[in-house]
From TrEMBL:
GO terms for molecular function: beta-lactamase activity. GO terms for biological process: beta-lactam antibiotic catabolic process; response to antibiotic. PANTHER family: BETA-LACTAMASE, BETA-LACTAMASE-TYPE TRANSPEPTIDASE FOLD CONTAINING PROTEIN. This is Beta-lactamase class A catalytic domain-containing protein. The lineage of its organism: Bacteria, Bacillati, Actinomycetota, Actinomycetes, Propionibacteriales. Residues 31-248 form the Beta-lactamase class A catalytic domain. Gene3D superfamilies: DD-peptidase/beta-lactamase superfamily.
Amino acid sequence: MPVVLPNLDPRITWSIRVLDATTAPDPDVLAEHTPEQVCRTASVGKLFLLVEVANRLVDGSLDATDRIEIPDELRVEDSGLLYRMLDQHLTVADAALLVGAVSDNLATNALAHLVGLDAIHAVAERLGYHDTLMLDYIRDERTPDLPWTTSYGCARELADLALRLGEGPGDTPGADLLPEEVRSKVLSWLAADTDTSMLADSFLLDPLAHVAPEYQGIVLRHKTGSVSTARIEVGHAAGPAGRVAYAMAANWSEADGDLRAVAIDAMRATGERIRAHITGVARDGSPLEGRTAEVTGERR
């Protein structure tokens, strides 16, 4: 059954795709809207950093107990906890966990400095992505001499990345980057993600404790991104009735005002329809069989 998207505000640039993960490696598309549209994706590009770090931990070129170093020129604040911590000399594994859990900017820059931006760029290229990338470090101020954004991408490629992380890479470009041991590490870091304020808000999970199956048996592994003119979420969600991989990006212009409420309302509405699809039940726990409207959003 398709997942029908809500009405989408035309003032917002959208890039959306929802895939039926149960039909991988050639998944059915359950919903999409301009999935090729490239958007600013804020922190979502950190997924490529986590894949690179996990690979180095697996091949032994990094040790989980190695300590990160933070160059003065890459010190940033805002998203995360590390910049507020007394002891910032964390292990590589703990820094990666902070990136997954609270999208920690300072830990991101430390890890990106450790492995190198070129290596992170190469991850996206080897996976076969042409329109999705973690382009640069996190910056407190993005001046004209710096890359135009931290990361960018389109829903077609980001939903595919979520699918490959959640289901396995199959016979796809860069499959050697996503063996089970690597995916397990990345997914374990994402399992701690505390930001369920967007699409995942409709899954009604405990934001601080959803490593194991939680509300209505949902298992969520996701990554979000936020800047003043964008909201993005990419994830893999599984329930007793199905599994999906999804990406939903919303970008808008400052000239149109602050449209975060409009964007997040649409993301939550999409999340509710995904929740119904993967659980097969209404929010109150009653069976959805024969109640198509609650899955598609159509009027009965």
